[in-house]
Amino acid sequence: MNVVEHTLQIPAAGVALEADIVVPEPATGVVVFAHGSGSSRHSPRNRYVAGELQQSGLGTVLVDLLTAEEERVDSRTGEHRFDIGLLAGRLAALIDWLEDYEDARGLGVGLFGASTGAAAALVAAAARPEAVQAVVSRGGRPDLAGQFLRQVRQPTLLIVGEADPVVIGLNRAALQQLAGPADLVIVPGAAHLFEEPGALEQVARLARDWFLQHLRPLRPRDGHR
Length: 225
Fold this sequence. Notes:
Blueprint: E1 5-12, E2 15-22, E3 29-34, H1 44-55, E4 58-63, H2 68-77, H3 84-98, E5 109-114, H4 116-127, E6 132-138, E7 156-161, H5 165-175, E8 182-187, H6 199-214
Parallel strand pairs: 3-4, 3-5, 5-6, 6-7, 7-8
Antiparallel strand pairs: 1-2, 2-4
Helix pairs in contact: 1-6, 3-4
């Protein structure tokens, strides 16, 4: 499979976001990653999951939703990582941009969110119901999406570690509010970061299967490349 990564600066909501994009040929969909608190597109956990998705024929977009200056401020204050409105607005703008990106044009979009990035993904899914076809949360805080949970009709998978009881409770409560088909999977023995042997591999398998099941082309891609 031909896998080439492109690093681009993407205009989104008045700023330029750094993104690493891979779209295999052929691709069955594209998954945008929304990173969690204090993380970035270089997160080894999300890069591992992205690699597994790519091998299954899914495109991936690993993006920093904060600018370099915002990251510096956030590392000291933590003020941006919980600004779900800011993160979701930029994620929605990135989804709009993908509609005109040649390699991803016509592909259904999935969102993979971790920690606070999961809330941003759910808010963006509610805002872009036509483009976003599925959502996966890894150790996420879907509760931070608040009232937008009731507007998310896309199939949503919530993945939580067994040794993360507070987050399990928050995810169970969010599961009851989601408007579309949704499931909660608890990974045995895993903590919040899924660092235990085999835990991240299980996350990748669950995400891959969910996206392959639910992502479909938005329209024919005749003449693409």
